[in-house]
Amino acid sequence: MSTKQHLFFYAKEHGWKDQQAQAASLTAETKTPWDQQYIEGVTDPTIKRSLCEWYPRLEKVFIQRAVAPLTRSRLFASNSWAKPSRGKGRGTGPTGHYFDQGSDSTVGSKHYWSAVEESRAPRVSANPYFGSLASEGICACGSSNVGRHMCFDCGRERQPPARQESQLESRQGDDHNTKVNPANQANQASQGRRFCIHCGAPQVAAAKFCSECGERCINPGAISQPEGAFQRRGGYFEKAPEPQHGAGVSKPEDEVDSFQDYKAQLRKEVLNAPATERGVGAYIRSLEGELWGRVVCDQGRSWQLASGRLARKENEGKVWVFENPNAIRAALHEAPKVVPEVTRQSSILDDLAEKRRQEEEALQAKREAARRRRREGDAGHQSQSGERRVDPDDNKLYTWEELRARYRGMFSDREVLDYWNKDCKVVPAVPAVPAGRPKQGHHGHEGRKDPDDGKVYSFDELCRKYRGAFSLEEIEEYWLEECREMR
After folding, report:
1. Separation between Cα atoms, residue 262 and residue 254, nearest integer Å
2. pLDDT score recorded for residue 248
3. Where is the composition biased (Basic and acidic residues) (predicted)?
4. Are 294 and 283 within 8 A, CB to CB?
5. Domain residue ranges in the chain
6. 204 near 139, Cβ under 8 Å?
7. Closest CA to 74 of 108, 99, 34
8. Is the separation of the CB atoms in 308 and 316 below 8 Å?
9. d(Cα 460, Cα 441) in Å, to the nearest integer?
10. Lowest mean per-residue pLDDT among 16-20, 204-208, 363-367
11. pLDDT (average), residues 383-389
12. In the predicted structure, residue 419 carries a pLDDT above the cut 80
């Protein structure tokens, strides 16, 4: 068998009936460089080449002719010489092109173009779930199923509705010799139309996103009738539905639309009704005395309060109790409860601290009494003596009686005495020493009685006793004010 006969039978095996006739039918205008090589390799009997030399050239020629725009040839496919390199059923040639092994749906098989024409799906307006244009099928329930065999909304096999079939027939036209069914047109006209509230584009029944602008359509609701004026409902503009209770008959006021409306109506009735002792309408209070609220609904295992809080029935008596409505009214008029003071057990340290505090208070009271006596004695002494002091207000000398008479009515005697002792500069007068009594100061050997222990001390002995605990000024003040002079 010659090379030319090998090429003829090889091409015939893969779906080419007569390669010579097809090559001869090419005109000068439609020929390409690849076509010229193909003609030379098939028709020229003088060229003697082996079949193995023509395999790469035939692959290259057939692939180029398959993608040429002016020729509608089939892609060369083989399952014998091209080994799969990317998974099962995939092969590649020297040019790097991938193609499937031969089957009824393989590109290049004898049934490929007929299968393409039969499986060509209509171009729908949009994918209502993802908002992108795609060739897809719409189930009879109205949901889009892209590349799915079963519907993911109703669970049935994907079947296009009647209106989609009518659109398919009208688009295909005379190519398939189909007729438009009037019943399908009536079914399509009876369906409600919806429009996007953002761009106004028409939408399918189960669309959740607009196919034109991609915005979300909220609360689809029920499909409206085509008759009547358009109204906005949820995320769509719909036509107003016909009244179900007859023309001109409105919906009763006491009829509720949903379970939420029923709960709201029940809550309103419970809050307006008088309080009960138990169950719905009663008040719940915690064991600590905190008022939780009023029961408006029985949830089975728990009570729902007006505030939305839930009180579990199993915690009654452990965490909360029902409040008596009479006790609530009586609590408004009863006297406030006196919380008893909790006495803490005292320790030895507390007793010592309390004893020390009492001693300090007694000592402070003694010192204050001594200061008071000293002021009174100084006032009596100043009234009897003729001591004069300088008033810093006018820098004049005044006796005690003169200073008190000057500020009488403006200040009290105690305030005048403090002003006399603290602010007025002392100008002491030298008293006459009585006969028979030597002049002595408080630093001499004079003895005075210490009120702390009742013993008589001289000033030097008193300094040695309180040295380290008090300063010299404090000891001297204590000596003059609190120690009693012994005569």
Report:
1. 10
2. 45
3. 162-178, 359-368, 443-453
4. yes
5. 3-103, 280-333, 374-429, 443-487
6. no
7. 108
8. no
9. 12
10. 16-20
11. 68
12. yes
Question: The tokens of 437 are what?
Answer: 């009594």
Phi, psi (deg, nearest 5) at residue 356: -65, -40
Q: At which residue do the structure tokens 């919806």 appear?
A: 194
pTM recorded for the entire structure? 0.21
- 3-state DSSP assignment of residue 238: strand
Average confidence (pLDDT) over 175-191: 49
CA distances from 221 to 233, 236, 237, 411, 480 (A): 8, 9, 11, 91, 103
Task: State the SS3 of 306-338.
Answer: CCCCEEEHHHECCCEEEECHHHHHHHCCCCCCC
220-228: Cβ within 8 A, 24+ apart: 220/194, 223/191, 223/192, 223/194, 224/192, 224/194, 225/192, 226/189, 226/190, 226/191, 226/192, 226/193
CA distance 76 to 99: 9
- CA–CA distance from 278 to each of 269, 281, 322, 431 (Å)? 17, 7, 6, 96
Lowest mean pLDDT among 186-200, 221-235, 424-438: 221-235
pLDDT at 300: 86
Using an 8 Å Cβ cutoff, are 271 and 307 in contact? Answer: no
Kindly give, in sequence order, each residue whose CB lies less than 8 Å from that of residue 254, ignoring residues fewer than 6 positions away.
Answer: none
In terms of average pLDDT, the best of 61-70, 95-104, 447-456 is 447-456
What is the per-residue pLDDT for 359? 92
Q: What is the pLDDT of residues 282-310, one digit of tens each?
A: 888 888 888 888 888 888 889 988 888 88
8 Å CB contact between 127 and 134: yes
Task: Please say if the pLDDT value at position 62 is more than 50.
Answer: no
Measured CA to CA, the distance from residue 443 to residue 435 in angstroms comes to 21
